[in-house]
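Why do we bother with holo predictions? Because pocket geometry can differ from the apo form. Keep that in mind while you read this record for zinc ion.
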Amino acid sequence: MKTYAEIMEQLKKPFPPGTVKVSGDGKRGHIPVQVYMSRLEDVAESQWHWRIIGEPVFNFEKNIVIVKGEITLVDAIRQGLGVAKIKNVEASLIKNALMTAESEAFRDACDKFKMGWIDLAPYRDWSKNPGIDVSHQTLIDENPIIEGFDPNIHSVMPVSNRNCIKCKNPLSQNEELLLSMNGIKHAYCKEHVPKQLIKKQL
Ligand SMILES: [Zn+2]
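The structure, written out:
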């Protein structure tokens, strides 16, 4: 088992060149969630855990969905907030928005462990502040960036780590989504979810 300090040291290391995805105007950069996930897997192995906190919040007036989650790393917990636009109330587009919001929440939580700070410094105004050394910095809370659907990040999601309360099989991301869309708090797989609780299909 590694200590928290050992893991942090490795998590903060710069990613290979080309990791940061830059927006068309060159002003904003982001790191795909898959990159964060594989760094966590490589460095922290079984010593990290991602979970969604509570239910996603839908706001159909503003057409946004908000997802909150947290990463537990050894004994440290950092929360992340993700917001995504819902382009249309079609089930598939709601699902896309949910997954994007979850990705953003995951990314936000990773950021609080200082992952990718060195790589993203050129795109962040605060990183140029003379009082800040990106490699030895104290935590700063940033507001999440509200972005639309990004096909680069919606397809791979962090594992949910819950098991069905009936058969004990691990839940897939789609099963978690189905439960959260229907406001079902207990963990059920597709087979064991009580049918009368399903109002919205994915
Ligand atoms: Zn089951």
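The helical segments are 4-11, 33-44, 91-112, 117-120, 173-181.
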